[in-house]
Design goal:
Number of strands: 6
Strand order of the largest sheet: 4-5-3-6
CATH superfamily: Transposase IS200-like
CATH architecture: 2-Layer Sandwich
Distance between the termini: 42 Å
Largest sheet: 4 strands, antiparallel
Number of domains: 1
CATH topology: Alpha-Beta Plaits
Oligomer: single chain
Shape: elongated
Pfam families: Y1_Tnp
InterPro entries: Transposase_17 (IPR002686), Transposase_17_sf (IPR036515)
CATH class: Alpha Beta
Protein name: Transposase IS200-family protein
Structural class: alpha+beta
Helix content: 25-40%
GO molecular function, one term: transposase activity
Number of helices: 4
Length: 135
Amino acid sequence: MISTETTYQRDEHRVHLILYHLIWCPKRRKPILTGNIKERCEQLLQETCESKGWQIIELAIEPDHIHLFVRVWTTDSAADVVKELKGVTSFALRKEFAPILKKLPSLWTRSYFACTVGQVSAEGIKAYIEAQKGV
């Protein structure tokens, strides 16, 4: 995909590294993400992430689910990212591939998996905070 660089981002007031592993599925886990639908879905995900300033680290579109590893801003929750990506892709794909997708009541399930990903362990954070107490 894009870059696997995971250095901290900096701006005027923040230093951050927000990485999410997100997974979501089509309604009824139907294996519809193939061929032209898969290609268009990937394009829509890339365009949307780029427009939001999100960086796709890795993307895998399987026939019945999507895995996305993405870097986002501090103001973007996992729920916001999934909502945006599901909304954009559902609207466009159902419009462009209506004969195939009209049988589904909606393109995506309401469910999703979200996991934060980091480079520092819980033990490392505890040790850092403990060390600050003596300063």
